[in-house]
Here is the input.
Amino acid sequence: MRIKIISSYKKLLEMAKDPIILESVFNLVHWDMETMMPPRGIELRSQQLALIKQVEHKIRTNPEIGKLLDKLLKHPDYDDLNQIQKRNVFLIKKEYDEQVMLPEELVKETARQEAITVDVWKKAKAAKDYSIYEPELGKLFELKKKAAEILMDVKKTSTPYDALIDIFEPKMPAKTITKIFNGLKDGLITLIEKCRNSSKQPDVSVLKRKVPIQFQSQVSNAIAKFVDYDTESEKAGGRIDETEHPFTTGYFDDVRITTHYHKDNFTSALFSTLHEAGHAIYGQNINHKFMYQPVGEGCSYGFHESQSRFVENILGRSRDFWVYFFPVLKQLTGNVFSDVDLDTFIKAINNVKPSKIRIEADEVTYSLHVIIRFNIEQDLFAGKVSVAELPEVWNQSYKEYLGVDIEHDSEGVMQDTHWASGYFGYFPSYAVGNIYSGQIVNEMEKELPGWRTKISKGNFKEIKQWMIKNVQVHGKLYDPSELIKKIAGKEINFEPFLNYLNQKYSELYDF
Ligand code: ZN
Here is the structure.
């Protein structure tokens, strides 16, 4: 009997392997579209991406998988499977049950429309003209809504939007997120007020200094090295390229990041590289035995963000990091910062100022950008806001939450690629990630009380090992709610993140 269930399990796992590899092909072709593809390639590329998705869907919905799942779950020896095996079965079943409900034509059409919408988004953004983008976004939204309505039944969520969130943050309905975000929002607004009213405002002129791209690229490489993201050695599993919108893509031994160099805004590339390297090292340090298995990916998008935002902010904007890295930065950038002292630099990179662009936002105001998008998405899928009304709602929200005036849609509703890429329901993960990172670091503090001193001496190894052991190695073995409990002993809680911010900024702003 025992042999029988294992052989069925192995057969099932073998069937789950092909779509995983195919997805990595999709990601690579997509990476090429963003980094290397000549402009005229878009029509062919949209067909290529659509075909890969169509084939992947076909493989994922092979009736054989359904039969095997049935056999396994009814097998009298099912309980002999270990935790990892059971989790793989669960994840394969979840994926299968959802995919069989989605018509192949819808999947293919959505992938094609996504490639087109991203392309149009880029053009509309450059032209600062939402009207070019709106029809394509409208088509994509309708396709996503159709899928969300189908998935809502399978996932048993109470709204279509919840079904979309579930793709990125499993089992976290909008209702729960709203409650958490409301508490977080109040704390952030109070903190922003305190920073604004402080008499100790940072001198940010240093951030405008022109840093030649070639120097910035060397800084990016040095940062990658610091966090042990290998892009240079013979055994490297990473690389850094340049795109308009930085991102990470890849699988285990080939995880690539992109960044964006601006001559007169060097911190943009610096923090993007830190952020994406945080994602990359997570992807590379999931238990290697999980490769080609459903458990072999990040726990959730929120957990992914907890890792990238830890590296970008909790590490990358800390005094300790810059005690070590500022001399390195100075050395790699010629004379650009030779007259700048460490304190001025640290205060400048931690300037709290409500702004228009999410990816350029400081860590205090950042989550408000996310909460705005979460509210808008909720209204969009509830039919309270139309695609045509998005710019207006966006601008109103920015005025209300952050007190800023949006002058054109490229710095407003068109700033992010997510909706153009079909990623509705993704945004909440960013703030959820911030919240997880607060809880995770709280625990790390208990076990590695000297971690900050280690950073100031240029030693990231033990911290990285702690993260791998406690967060990254588990891959998708647990639901996010289970993993955070395993790490922090509690469910999701925004207090540690808020405490971290309050402590840090009360020192910087002297209140
Ligand atoms: Zn990220």
